[in-house]
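Hello, quick one for you while I still have it in my head. No rush at all, and the record is pasted right below.
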Amino acid sequence: MADLSPVENFRIPSKEELRELREQPIDPQAEQEIIDSIEEVYFSNDAFDMVQHELEKLPPELNLQELEEYRDKLKRQQAAVSKKVADLILEKQPAYVKELERVTALQTNLQLAAVICTNARRQLGVAKEGFTGASLGLLANQRRRHLLTGLLKSLRTIKTLQRTDVRLSEMLEEEDYPGAIQLCLECQKAASTFKHYSCISELNSKLQDTLEQIEEQLDVALSKTCKHFDVAHYTKVQLAYTLLGKTQTAMDQLHMHFTQAIHNTVFQVVLGYVELCAGNADTKFQKMQYKDLCTHITLDSYIPCLTDLCKALWEVMLSYHRTMQWHEEHDNMETSPGPGSNKGQGDSVVDRSYVKKKLEHGLTRIWQDVQLKVKAYILGTDMSNFKYDDFIVVLDVISRLMQVGEEFCGSKSEVLQESIKWQSVNYFKHYHRARLEELRMFLENETWELCPVKSNFNIAQLHEFKFMGQCRSPSVSPSRQAASSTGLAQEELSLFQLYLLEGNPFEMHIEHKEEETEDVLASNGYESDELEKCVYQDYDNDSDSDVPEELKQDYVDEQTGDAPLKSVSRETIRSKKKSDYNLNKANAPILTNTTLNVIRLVGKYMQMMNILKPIAFDVIHCVSQLFDYYLYAVYTFFGRNDMYESSSLGLISSRLRTTLNRIQESLIEVAAGENAGVHGAVEERKEKVPSPHLSQLVVLTNSGTLYGLAQRVVATESLVFLAEQFESLQSHLDTMMPAAKKPFLQQFYSQTVSTASELRKPIYWIVAARAIDYEQMLLLMAGVKWDIREIMSQHNVYVDVLLKEFEQFNKRLADVSRHVRIPLPVSNVLWEHCIRLANRTLVEGYANVKKCSNEGRALMQLDFQQFLMKLEKLTDLRPIPDKEFVETYIKAYYLTENDMEQFIKNHREYSMKQLANLVNVCLGSHINKKARQKLLAAIDDIDRPKR
């Protein structure tokens, strides 16, 4: 109330008024409504100026009545508020009294506390007086002593810390890296405890430097494992990195060291050889790039350097392999014990997983580095002038390296394959060219004499084919077999298992060269005294029991010459007995030195192909050229003679003709005069070889030797033998051939190799055509009178002359067979040719007859039957070739005009002259001129397409 202004005080109701108000019964609800009607602004704050507020609310024009009404309203509101305040005061009265009592009690407590404090101060004063300064000094000294004892301990630790530097150096010299790191870390931990000393802060930084120094030395130690892996050494290094918590960093560093080791190793090896061969040359080889350095390797030092290069790289790869092994074993050991702290285990698993992935990824990277280094070395030198054996050694070493790569990381070594393929193709073309020239020289100096080989001769006995018997995959080099042939168990081991602790897979590539010698040649015509004796014993034992009487007689006749000789009976003996014409040559294959040379070449080519599959097609193509050239030479020397090539006999099949034409176009070089001045031809001629010429020592015109029959047999049968060897190699070649090129191989076999035996026909035809005097027989037949009127019982003399010729031929065959075995197919071809020619000569003789009667035709049949009967005793060839050719011609005499017309259409094997003779001589007397003209016209029509 005191805060109200004078005006407000004036308006506050007096006590009496309040009492009146209280006494007046007011409805609480009505009272509450009056209070609620008071404006909000009255309750806002104490600074509120009510008078000002009300005056401002007055309207511009004042109305007394309204003012009074408004004043009454305000009074009512004030009265309601006053009443409300008074009620509240009365309501709170008991609480006020109670609080006042508590205040009084608090005052009493405070007075008590003041008394207690006074007593305490008084007692403290007494204690101070009773406790002397000497006692407190004693306690202070005790505390100081305790502090100094702690300081002494710290000083001793500091002294030890300062001395650890020396011990660390000793440990590093001993290569005890884990111990040194452990000590260093402990020192660091101790130093951090005493870091408040200034000297220790310096020591701490020194220890950090030492730790870095240890890491550097550790890195050097890690790099040493790249060339010579030592388990103990590597275990220490890895433990040290684990203590440092840098397992992953160590792995990154290790791979960098391996890459560096490969580069340094190959550079040092090649540099050593280059400087050794260069002597005192001033060339700065040290500063050269590795690729350029490789081009300075000499041919003599190429293989030793390559071997040393591979040996050195093997050491690096073996170290990497053993590093991986160590980690695998270490992982197994770590995962097997009981669980440690979960956090530690988690970190360890992460590290192991990282290391494993890094090592596996590193395999491919390291092998790629190795390949690139060896590739640079391979391509740095032109190998086209290498000796064959040297080149095979190079292939062998690279093949072994590729095997290492496959076992190292399962790589197919595409980089190495590509580089060695390029070198191989280059070398092989050069080598093959020289071999073809060499083969031409062999063929031109070949006298086609029999090369005496053992009867059990097999190409597998030749050095060049030894690799085929070793039952290994073509990608594996021959030296591997030498290394692993000691036992079956070893063959299953990989190179890394075989040479894990000692040795090197590149040390054995030359050792297997001189292991055994060949033994394929027969001595003095016999394989051995025992075999010779054995063959004769076989003959003696079998002669009486197994051989029929008539055959024995034939055999005796052969020795004495009393009876006509039978080459076929000898063949029959051979089929019954183990011996042939000449006992010591029982089953020996017919071949020449040149054949043997070609077979050896094929072996060498296959060896190269076996080691290096990528050039398989190039090699097989060259192998086919060797066979092509040999076949072409045999044909050119002995079978090319247009004079005797009769198309009607089909001596040369269309397949053989196509093959010979192909060889001539693709392989035989045309003489310079025929195709000169064309640049393209020069390039093409590099692939071609001049046509060979028969040696002057070989005489094919002497009738005494049956026109060089012995040489012809040796040449032709050696070709057939060569074809048989090719057949036996087909499956092996097929496995080598890329799938896309297999049709070439199949075509070569079906169109070339299989035609070898077909050359027998044209070659032996030449002998058959000259061996018997067919011209003389035609003359004798011309002298015979055929228009006789009575049946004759005696055959003509020309038949005896012809049979005498055949007997003479048989005897000469036997003479030849004493020098060269004549196989049954050869003897059959010769007899077939001779009999065919004889039969065709007979038909030609009968076609020359101007006049002939029925009796004359009967005489022809008698002559022919006599010839057949005697001939069948001379040869076992059945049926007699072209027998029907003669019989049909003789029987055609009896045909009518209509039958003759059909006969002319059906029998085109007879010549126009022979058919015309049938019309003129046989039918001439029975038909008119018009009919004869018609038949002759039909003959002419048949002959026209031939012309």
